[in-house]
Amino acid sequence: MLHIRSADPGEADALAELHARSRAVYYRAGGHDVATHPDEGYREGWRKLVGDSRIIVLVAASDDELVGVLTVDVGTSYRKRVRLTGIFVEPGQWSTGVGSTLMARFIAIARDADAVGEVDVWERNSRAIRFYERHGWTRDGTSRPGPAGAAYLGYVHLPTPVSAPPGTRGG
Known about the structure:
With 171 residues, this protein is an alpha+beta fold. The protein contains four helices and seven strands; from the N terminus they run βααβββαβαββ. The chain has helices spanning 12-29, 40-51, 98-112, 126-134, and strands at 2-6, 55-62, 65-73, 81-89, 116-122, 138-144, 152-157. It has a seven-stranded mixed sheet, sandwiched between helices. α1 crosses α2. The relative contact order is 0.15.
């Protein structure tokens, strides 16, 4: 059974390893090689991330195995935006619902903040682009430089409008 919970600081190294494996697969699919194993600097980055109060780090665990991670920057909430900084799933768990479960959690976080979700997706990661679009994300026209001469494309997820109860009129 899949459980979503806050990451424990002691899991930072395991999350760095999961992240490195996941990103290596999608970058390779786009023609860009990256390490499949994190070095010490990479691990330290994850240790800082897990300890940062502006970042929500949630893990998806199946039994005692970490199979996914969601990172959300809530430090942008002053702009009524919540930045999805990453959803990473163990490659052997792709297409099993782990990513969709993590995405549902992100959408709930953004909805509770009445905020627009924002994310950047590497343009050569067609699998991720399909995933985001399937979950209601749309291109916002922004981009920034990315690896291998391919840009990161900006996407937004708009808050779901709250419908008025039956028999009432909206403002």
